[in-house]
Recover the amino acids of this structure.
């Protein structure tokens, strides 16, 4: 196997899904044939599911303990050729075992690569199909949206045209009604103006010089009454202002008197306080 195949196998091995680690079983410690500790005590207790906890209690070390001696065994005489043959056989077995392992590993990697390739193909097909479906749905949605927008625009145009027609008809109707109303008012005003002019002319014809003098006298009398009333109002205002001014002066004078009384009290208090301090100082 070349280096590239080994590196690809290592990469595939890294990318391959790893199995969950199996729980290792604890084994009881085997008793040694050479050394035996008589005073050693081992307690086994199950702490959690799948595991064991050991407590090893060691006694005080003994003084001089005689170790048991094993009887000497006689070794077999093996020649160099037999050793070499055995080594060759072991090497051949090792190489065949490694070749078998590599073949099994290559077969597993090929299966994993094939599964990964099929998965990639399925993912690619699914993505392509999903993209096509999404593209088709988007096109349908875009067409439907454009159709709805065009329908809404047509409805809005129709509605705006109806509103404009209604507005124009209402404005025309209002203008006609206003024009008619103004014409009626102008007609009535012209009629009333003609009637008033005619009445005034008739009254002027009926008036004579005496009537005019009476009117003038009445006007003079009215003006005199108005001037008298105005003078009386002004005098009342002046008297009221004078009274208010007198009241303000009285208030100010009262405030000044109160201030002077307070100042006098303060001076008296200061004098009494000074007198007390003098008396206290002289007595001290």
């Amino acid at each position: 196997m070349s280096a590239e195949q080994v590196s690809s196998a290592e990469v595939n091995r890294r990318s391959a899904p790893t199995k969950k680690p199996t729980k290792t079983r604890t084994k009881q410690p085997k008793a040694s044939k050479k050394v035996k500790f008589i005073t050693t005590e081992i307690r086994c207790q199950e702490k959690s599911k799948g595991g064991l906890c050991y407590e090893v209690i060691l006694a005080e070390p003994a003084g001089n303990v005689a170790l048991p001696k094993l009887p000497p065994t006689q070794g077999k005489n093996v020649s160099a050729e037999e050793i070499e043959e055995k080594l060759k056989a072991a090497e051949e077995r090792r190489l065949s075992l490694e070749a078998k392992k590599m073949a099994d590993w290559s077969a597993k990697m090929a299966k994993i690569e094939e599964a990964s390739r099929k998965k990639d193909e399925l993912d690619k097909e699914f993505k392509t199909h999903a993209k096509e479906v999404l593209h088709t749905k988007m096109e349908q949605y875009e067409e439907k949206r454009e159709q709805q927008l065009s329908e809404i625009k047509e409805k809005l145009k129709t509605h705006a045209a109806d509103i404009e027609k209604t507005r124009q008809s209402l404005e025309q109707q209002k203008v006609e009604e206003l024009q008619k109303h103004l014409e009626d008012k102008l007609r009535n005003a012209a009629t009333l103006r003609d009637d008033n002019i005619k009445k005034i002319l008739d009254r002027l014809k009926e008036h004579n010089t005496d009537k005019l003098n009476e009117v003038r006298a009445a006007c003079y009398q009215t003006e005199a009454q108005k001037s008298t009333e105005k003078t009386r109002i002004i005098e009342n205002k002046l008297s009221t202002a004078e009274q208010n001014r007198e009241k303000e002066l009285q208030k100010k004078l009262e405030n000044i008197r109160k201030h002077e009384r307070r100042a006098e009290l303060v001076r008296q208090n200061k004098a009494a306080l000074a007198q007390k301090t003098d008396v206290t100082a002289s007595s001290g």
Confidence is low (pLDDT under 50) at residues 31-38. The chain has three helices and two strands. The two ends are 127 Å apart (CA to CA).
